[in-house]
């Protein structure tokens, strides 16, 4: 089997990535919710009177949440594919993936509060 190289490889990889995003949208409610959160975050960040760097941080931390959700969903899909019976390592993998999303959400909240707090206090 010949592996694609150059531009062909990039085109195929892009197709696989878009397919993955479509699968996440179709099968993962948390991904849909966090993507909607990203849309709201972009709108709010663009409306706020903050610097470009702060705006990028506000949006970027929510992008990190979406990225972690994609990784978590991939881990869960692989674990579920391997088997449905309870196994300590399977549970650990799912819990760690979930923890990654949680840490990203906490980090996002800290960044948003840190940037918005001075605006609220005026």
UniProtKB/TrEMBL annotation:
Cofactor: Mg(2+)
InterPro entries, alphabetized: DAGK (IPR000829), DAGK_prok (IPR033718), DAGK_sf (IPR036945)
Annotated localization: Cell inner membrane
GO molecular function: kinase activity
Protein keywords: ATP-binding, Cell inner membrane, Cell membrane, Kinase, Lipid biosynthesis, Lipid metabolism, Magnesium, Membrane, Metal-binding, Nucleotide-binding, Phospholipid biosynthesis, Phospholipid metabolism, Transferase, Transmembrane, Transmembrane helix
Cited PROSITE patterns: DAGK_PROKAR
CDD domains tied to this protein: DAGK_IM
Enzyme Commission no: 2.7.1.107
Disulfide bond keyword on record: no
Record function comment: Catalyzes the ATP-dependent phosphorylation of sn-l,2-diacylglycerol (DAG) to phosphatidic acid. Involved in the recycling of diacylglycerol produced as a by-product during membrane-derived oligosaccharide (MDO) biosynthesis.
Protein name: Diacylglycerol kinase
Taxon lineage: Bacteria, Pseudomonadati, Pseudomonadota, Gammaproteobacteria, Enterobacterales
